[in-house]
Design brief:
- This protein starts with a strand and ends in a 23-residue tail after the last strand.
- Helix content is 39%, strand content 13%.
- By secondary structure, it is an alpha+beta fold.
- A two-stranded antiparallel sheet has the order 1-2. Strands 3-4 form a two-stranded antiparallel ribbon. It has a two-stranded antiparallel sheet with strand order 5-6.
Length: 323
């Protein structure tokens, strides 16, 4: 696929105007067969693939409901420009943390895209239902998976700890279903609901079950993000490495005693409280009560805090950038 551009001149009110029209999605062998009237801009519907690979399995998208479900979400992410670009920029910082944890827990790498649609890769995200963090745990579920929630701590906002908890949920769901699509659907709707509907409807696939709209769209949203992240240029996203958010190396400080003043604690490392909280969004207050637990606080290395030519941003995935 390549982008084809054509400059078209036309007269408007006696003035000569130029319009550059881009045609996306044509194969090299395809030609623009006829002139079209000039338009101020063009919105082209993205092509829906006939199949997609998810968690190592080929998923057929030819059936009408699957094709149309995929079309809706792929179109949405393709033309939700600012948000989709932001997702890739944030992924450059968070995927290097998420991917090794998924691999170590034997969870397919494609589930990193579930985190993308859950929270827009914002560790501080809060839903209207009060789910919180990168993986959007409800408080009761978070406690079930051993995430600490206290007056001064909320580990739902800890990227590493919440990813480990998500892996525990995903593994438990896979042990129950043996099907990664059902696992993905259950992350949105809950295992109880998915089990009930799966047994009642006797559907061969999660993609063909009759579910509430949010859950019905959920897996296609994961698919759409995967397709765009794996080939952003095809969908009109053009970025260089310097546009991405760089991973910032941190030192780890293990804490097993209360910290009465995090402002003073941050100052010891020549950091502001705001810096400490951005790298440790699980810290809820200006103090830390450990309550017989041990925590690891990330201390960003000050020499990496500035964007500069001497401190270049590496692209975690070379497919995200153009030279």
């Amino acid at each position: 696929m390549k982008w084809l551009g054509r400059i078209i001149s036309f007269s408007a009110g006696g003035a000569i105007c130029l319009s550059v029209v881009f045609f996306a999605g044509y194969n090299d062998s395809e030609k623009v067969k006829e002139e079209r009237p000039a338009v101020q801009s063009m919105t082209r519907s993205p092509d829906v693939p006939s199949q997609i690979t998810f968690c190592g399995e080929t998923v057929d998208l030819a059936r009408y409901n699957r094709h149309e479900g995929m079309d809706r979400e792929l179109s949405s992410f393709t033309y939700y420009h600012s948000t989709t670009m932001l997702l890739m920029k944030r992924a450059n910082r968070y995927f290097p943390v998420i991917e090794p944890i998924l691999k170590a827990r034997n969870i397919p790498d494609d589930f990193k895209y579930l985190a993308v649609i859950e929270s827009n890769l914002d560790p501080t995200a809060v839903s209207p239902a009060r789910a919180r963090g990168l993986w959007q745990f409800m408080e009761s579920t978070a406690r079930d998976y051993r995430l600490a929630i206290t007056a001064t701590v909320d580990e739902r906002c800890n990227v590493r700890r919440s990813t480990e908890a998500a892996c525990s949920y995903l593994k438990e769901a896979y042990d129950k279903y043996g099907d990664w699509l059902l696992v993905a659907a259950s992350y949105n709707a809950g295992m109880g609901r998915i089990s009930t509907e799966y047994d009642r409807q006797r559907s061969p696939s999660a993609l063909d079950m009759w579910l509430v709209e949010e859950t019905s769209r959920y897996i296609y949203r994961i698919f759409a993000v995967k397709l765009i992240f794996e080939n952003p240029y095809k969908y009109g996203f053009v970025m260089s490495a310097r546009n991405l958010y760089k991973p910032i190396p941190c030192d780890e400080v293990t804490v097993s005693e209360d910290i009465p003043d995090l402002i003073d604690f941050a100052a010891k490392y020549q950091l502001a409280l705001s810096d400490l909280k951005r790298f440790n969004p699980w810290l809820k207050d200006t103090r830390l009560n450990v309550e017989k637990r041990t925590y690891v606080i990330l201390i960003p290395r000050r020499e990496y805090l500035n964007y500069s030519d001497a401190n270049e941003t590496p692209a975690h995935d070379p497919r995200w950038v153009v030279n």
